[in-house]
Design brief:
By secondary structure, this protein is an alpha+beta fold. About 30% of the residues lie in helices and about 25% in strands.
Length: about 110
């Protein structure tokens, strides 16, 4: 299995710690040992536009958003406004189960 790259986009107003916790739990549960976590601090909407981030926090696995319902609508922002919906509930960070599902969708986890 190739190294898994996880990118976390965050801002000072929307810190990365809760996201890192969720990602770490998913990696541990999946038994993935070969990974890299890159955290990118966004200072403004211009940087969000450059990275095509629709809101904070954003998590990508190997360049793909973890949200299975993600659609790039072209409105990029560094605002702490991203909401994740998973199994009928809303979350301010992607839940571990959503990240595990992303691993499966991307063929990282069988």
């Amino acid at each position: 299995m190739a190294k898994v790259k996880i990118t976390i986009y965050y801002t000072p107003e929307c810190p990365k710690d809760p996201v890192v916790s969720s990602v770490s739990e998913a990696l541990k549960e999946a038994g993935i040992d070969d990974y890299e976590i890159e955290d990118i601090l966004l200072a403004n909407d211009e940087e969000a536009c450059r990275h095509k981030v629709l809101g904070i926090p954003t998590v990508r696995v190997n360049g793909v958003d973890v949200d299975p319902n993600f659609k790039d609508i072209g409105k990029y922002t560094s605002a702490c406004s991203r909401v994740y919906k998973w199994e009928g509930k809303y979350y301010s960070v992607p839940p571990k189960e959503m990240i595990l599902d992303a691993f499966k969708r991307l063929g990282i986890l069988k």
